Amino acid sequence: MAEHTQEKVPTVVADDVDIVYRVNGTGAGRGTATAALNRILRRKQAEKAAGVRTVHAVKKVSFVAYKGEAIGLIGTNGSGKSTLLKAVAGLLPVESGHIYTDGQPSLLGVNAALMNDLTGERNVFLGGLAMGMSREQIKERYQDIVDFSGINEKGDFITLPMRTYSSGMAARLRFSIAAAKDHDVLLIDEALATGDRSFQKRSEARIRELRQHAGTVFLVSHNNKSIRDTCERVLWLERGELRMDGPTDEVMKEYEAFTGDKKPAPKKPAAKKPAPAAEAPAAGNQGGAKVPLPS
């Protein structure tokens, strides 16, 4: 009899993905579509002539993500984590290879929609609309969003312009707006590094809820504990290459050995040497008192 197992449903497939940044020097222009096509066909020669510098940010990366997974993206600075996340969200083109997604990926932040000169309250509505929520849905979830962010705990900050917020307050509000909606694929870049432990716990609990609703969560973080507490699987990128893909504990162990982040176990205090035993008193003189000599 064949064994019945629950079928995994893929939500993101990266197939041999290369991502290249181009930093244009003088001589590069937009021009017409025909001119653009000609530049593509003569790319190497044109880049050299125009002084274009290329940065190969992601190199031949392949993986498959499934519904209900929370996947951590780790790597040292400049390893390509955020670049890969933006490509999955459709914000960056790939040089070669393909990225396929089932549903609409949402990159946490809705940064492009939020405006510093508007109040936090107005930005909650603006960010919610940018994610496709109706005004009625935003009104229903408004107070939950504000409470989740915690920005009103020390004053009525939600009525102040966002330019008055600290970077941590702004990041917490962005996460709270994005987390108010269930997502097919939610991409989170360093959001859990902000706020106190209480906010981090709320965020981690919300990520678990999103997974239960058959969503897929990607989390980029330099906080190893957040990765361990939140993710069951980890992709380790280094210099643009996928160095390891596997269960969180296995990958984190190798990564920490690579970076030297693993703290050594505390040394046990050296055992104290026993004090030298006192000489036993002579027989018949158990109390150790002096015996007077006969005169």
Automatic annotation (TrEMBL):
Xref: Pfam families: ABC_tran (PF00005)
Domain ABC transporter: start-end pairs: 41-264
UniProt biased composition (Low complexity): 272-283
GO MF entries: ABC-type transporter activity; ATP binding; ATP hydrolysis activity
Location of region: Disordered: 256-295
UniProt keyword terms in alphabetical order: ATP-binding, Nucleotide-binding, Transport
Domain of life: Bacteria
InterPro entries: AAA+_ATPase, ABC_transporter-like_ATP-bd, ABC_transporter-like_CS, ABC_transpr_TagH-like, Bact_Polysacc_Export_ATP-bd, P-loop_NTPase
UniProt xrefs under Gene3D superfamilies: P-loop containing nucleotide triphosphate hydrolases
Keyword Nucleotide-binding found: yes
Transport is among the record's keywords: yes
Gene Ontology cellular component list: membrane
Protein family per UniProt: Belongs to the ABC transporter superfamily.
Protein name: ABC transporter ATP-binding protein
Species in which this protein is naturally found: Streptomyces actinomycinicus
